[in-house]
Amino acid sequence: MGNFKVGVIGCGSIAQKRHLPEYQANENVEIVAVCDVVESRAEEMAQKYGAKAYTDYKEVLKLEEVDAISVCLPNYLHASVTIDALNEGKHVLCEKPMAVSLEEAQAMNHAAEWNQKTLMIAHNQRFVSSHQKAKTIIENGNLGNIYSFRTTFGHGGPENWSIDGASSWFFDKEKAFVGAMGDLGVHKADLIRYLLGDVSEIGAFVQTSAKENTDVDDNAVCILKMDSGLIGTLTASWSYVSGNDNSTVIYGEKGMMELENDPDYSLKVTYKNGESVHYSLDKIQTNEAGGQTTTHVIDHFVESVLNERPPLITGEEGMKSLQVILSALEANETKQMIKVSSGNVSFST
């Protein structure tokens, strides 16, 4: 067994489909503790992964042998549990969105810094083959100046995926704080920042149109202006009832690049002169049966801690991606364009 001992807090869908199997597949890791307020859920995972079951996460944090914690809880608990874990000297991999306010995100980052522990946010889009290849193509100047983009993430909603179905915390504003924008939009905010730099201004329409009995958003269309001046759109939706869309298209002076926009090619570049290059790369992870490839998030987290290197998505990066979403919500509420400056953490939502 591995010498890197981990505890997973929260045994819902994200833990069962991503964290636990991927930790188990990593030869350096031993899963020693699993925790869930639903005791039977914790027991079931404990049995499956040869770990010990807990219902109180603080007991897991007291275990000296535990090196790291995965926080797989509803959004509103991310900050408090992450900070407690860091203060107990554990490294933390926290699910996205990292928090429900910038103040919380900052407090998490301070705790990581203060305790000199790794805090990584589980944004898996940066590890997708087509996205990494796209970054290289952009940086190499193959597309020339970038003019515009569109990025979207939509599916039929968490009731099809979450362990609790339609009664899931995803629809509970108190627990989720934000809907499709926090579930899906934050992934694309992180991806676009990774590919094209920081966002400087945002405008948005955010609404609840497809789901009943919920106050969280399920459809959002945002206009982004990047620090470089280029503009584009970001959409997040739980209303795509007949399938997923996880695509990004980037328009440059020499051509356009399509990511995850074609069923056969995860990356397609079409040049102005009509030439096109298709790349068959590893497929993007989906929650569909048979589409479940590794997210690389767990392996990267373990590797970062063991090699004492900062992860690709630090708490600071997670905070900047969260800020895009918070600014979009503010833009929708105020019906104004909102400046997203990396230093602006004063407003409260």
UniProtKB/TrEMBL annotation:
Domain Gfo/Idh/MocA-like oxidoreductase N-terminal: start-end pairs: 4-123
TM regions (residue ranges): none
InterPro entries listed in its UniProt record: Gfo/Idh/MocA-like_OxRdtase_N, Gfo/Idh/MocA_Oxidoreductase, GFO_IDH_MocA-like_dom, NAD(P)-bd_dom_sf
UniProt-listed Gene3D superfamilies: Dihydrodipicolinate Reductase, domain 2, NAD(P)-binding Rossmann-like Domain
Domain GFO/IDH/MocA-like oxidoreductase: residue ranges: 131-257
Protein name in the entry: Predicted dehydrogenase
An example Gene Ontology molecular-function term: nucleotide binding
